[in-house]
From TrEMBL:
The keyword Nucleus does not apply. Pfam families: BBE, FAD_binding_4. InterPro entries: BBE, FAD-bd_PCMH, FAD-bd_PCMH-like_sf, FAD-bd_PCMH_sub2, FAD-linked_Oxidoreductase, Oxid_FAD_bind_N. Gene3D superfamilies: 3.30.465.10, 3.40.462.20. The lineage of its organism: Eukaryota, Fungi, Dikarya, Ascomycota, Pezizomycotina. This is FAD-binding PCMH-type domain-containing protein. Its cofactor is FAD. Keywords: FAD, Flavoprotein, Oxidoreductase, Signal. Belongs to the oxygen-dependent FAD-linked oxidoreductase family. SUPFAM superfamilies: FAD-binding/transporter-associated domain-like. Residues 1-19 form the signal peptide. Residues 59-233 form the FAD-binding PCMH-type domain.
Length: 496
């Protein structure tokens, strides 16, 4: 696994079979950190396996050193040590990256932000500006905000995910259709740059850096604090529902999807959310409604009339935060609960309202993914999250991530039943190719989702799918803020 030449190791073959190999770079980095008083560990430490365990178990991180700074000065010292030793830096937030990007490429100095989890401030007012440190998880932040101010921000669907990491790549949740993703709510960020200087970015100062944060924050520096807008629910209670079209054939199922899309574009209020399954048949999904719960049945009528007879609709109603903790398990638990890792491979694409599903596109997607999936060593999983609403008010150029006018977030994935199968990635990748071709044939550009990174994409592919025409501006900002590419440390970091 190590990429270094064997005789450069201090370790060795001469020692016991289990001796861990530590390269001169690793030793130098570690002693630089120790001299500066920054706790750090090397491979061989008894906590190493635990501290380098990603949520994504398909990948095995291989950093040089993992450091645990406790203060801003210690972060600055860690950055100096990395620069002196020519190592790249990767920040570890909530460790929930689907590509294990919190550890990044082999040989990185990892800065574990576990000591930076404080709530910094809340400012009363329409925007309800909420500031927290860069290592906090979604759960503790959302719960504190609710307990103290009865407010909410759109967030991912697991309390243990890092808030800063998920915000930089999106943060799509059940309120995204009307409130945007977490990314859309970012008002300010405070970075420590490569040279230890603290840079604040808002719409008034360093607005380019704020723009870049919304899609590529991890490539710019260490995010010390982030400020987001929050929202006060209008209704004390909210609805969750299950919509079930049943075990119908492909044609009926895809027509149902088009009926849903039509409803979303014409009739449904933005407060209506849907996560439709891509593992059909059966064709079904779950949804949420954040307008007046008393209006729900009436709102659903135009859709129910268009769906096949026999389609079933069930609903429940809960207090806002109770429901929010069902949406994002762990939200109300200490530290956002626990979410054990898995070995899986994910691919994601988005469709805009300008190029929505057609019957042909939907048929191709279902046919070659869920219908074609025949494995018992992997379990399929996939969703069509209804976006639209808020995103229809933003343009691609308003933030680094090309998310303007998004209508659907498509995710296709399989999880290993036990060990990740050697042909698993190829198998799943081939399943998406017909849909990608159908999109290209329909003159749609391929668009992706940063928080569901496809680790197999080439540079040309991911820069186009994730950033589109924004990439050049993003790279210019990168060159100013991180000129030597200290934070170009994972496979989808912005290069200098
Ligand atoms: C169980 C689960 C559920 C999820 N649900 C959703 C969902 O509903 N919607 C959605 O959009 N996404 C979802 N995700 C994806 C998640 O949003 C991303 O994986 C996100 O990047 C995780 O952030 P993290 O801080 O936990 O991970 P990490 O691996 O620690 O970090 C992710 C990236 O952010 C960088 N980073 C983190 N903190 C900082 C910082 N302070 N400064 C600079 N860089 C930083 C890291 O270097 C890395 O590049 C889910 C993931 C899991 C595992
Ligand atoms: C609403 O959510 C709760 C908690 O997850 C669940 O038990 C219930 O079945 C859901 N209701 C519907 C109609 O899906
Ligand atoms: C550190 O880098 C930033 C960003 O490039 C720059 O603005 C700042 O002047 C630098 N600080 C020092 C002390 O060199």
């Amino acid at each position: 696994m190590k990429l270094f030449i064997l005789n450069h190791f201090l370790c060795a073959a001469l020692l016991t079979v289990h001796a861990e190999c530590v390269s001169p770079l690793e030793t130098a980095l570690s002693s630089c950190l120790s001299k500066a008083g920054v706790r750090n560990i090397l491979d061989g430490d008894k906590t190493w396996a635990q501290e380098t365990l990603p949520f994504q178990l398909r990948l095995k991180p291989d950093p040089a050193v993992v450091s645990f700074p406790n203060t801003r000065d210690q972060i600055a010292a860690a950055l100096r040590c990395a620069v002196e030793n020519n190592a790249k830096v990767s920040c570890l937030g909530g460790d929930h990256s689907f590509g294990a990007f919190g550890f990044g490429k082999p040989g990185n100095l990892v800065i574990n932000l576990g000591a930076f989890t404080r709530i910094v401030s809340f400012q009363e007012g329409e925007k309800g500006l909420f500031t927290f440190e860069g290592g906090i998880r979604v759960g503790p932040a959302a719960k504190w905000l609710w307990d103290n101010h009865q407010r909410h921000f759109p967030h991912v669907r697991a309390g243990h995910v890092g808030l800063t990491g998920s915000a930089c790549g999106g943060g799509f949740g059940s309120t995204t259709r009307f409130l945007g993703t977490t990314l859309d709510t970012i008002e300010a960020v405070e970075y420590m740059a490569y040279n230890g200087t603290i840079i604040k970015a808002t719409q008034y100062t360093n607005s380019d850096l704020l723009w870049a944060t919304k899609g590529a924050g991890p490539s710019m520096g260490v995010i010390l604090t982030m400020t987001i807008r929050t929202w006060k629910p209008k209704y004390q209670r909210a609805v969750n529902f299950t919509l079930d079209v049943g075990d119908v054939d492909l044609e009926t199922g895809t027509k149902a999807l088009l009926a849903i899309q039509d409803f979303a574009l014409k009739d449904a209020p933005e407060e209506w959310a849907l996560r439709w399954k891509l593992t059909s048949p059966p064709y079904q999904g779950t949804g949420y409604f954040y307008e007046d719960p008393a209006k729900f049945d009436q709102i659903m009528q135009p859709l129910m009339q268009k769906l096949p007879g026999g389609s079933k609709l069930k609903k429940d109603e809960y207090d806002f935060f109770t429901l929010d903790s069902y949406v994002a398990p762990g939200l109300d638990q200490p530290n956002g609960g626990d979410s054990p890792g898995r070995a899986f491979y994910v691919q994601s694409l988005t469709l805009t309202a300008a190029q929505p599903f057609t019957q042909d596109l939907a048929t191709t997607l279902y046919k070659y993914t869920t219908y074609a999936f025949k494995r018992d060593d992997m379990k399929k999983s996939g969703y069509l999250d209804l976006w639209g609403g808020f995103s229809q008010k933003i343009k691609d150029t308003e933030q680094a991530a090309a998310y303007g006018n998004n209508l659907w977030l498509i995710r296709w994935q399989a999880d290993a039943v036990k060990d990740w199968p050697a042909d698993g990635v190829d198998y799943l990748k081939k399943q998406m190719l017909p849909f990608e071709k159908a999109l290209r044939d329909a003159d749609s550009s391929l668009r992706g989702y940063i928080n569901y990174p496809d680790t197999q994409l080439t540079f040309a592919e991911w820069r186009g799918r994730l950033y589109g025409a924004n990439f050049e501006r993003l790279q210019e900002i990168k060159r100013k803020v991180d000129p030597d590419g200290l934070f170009t440390s994972n496979d989808q970091s912005i290069p200098v």
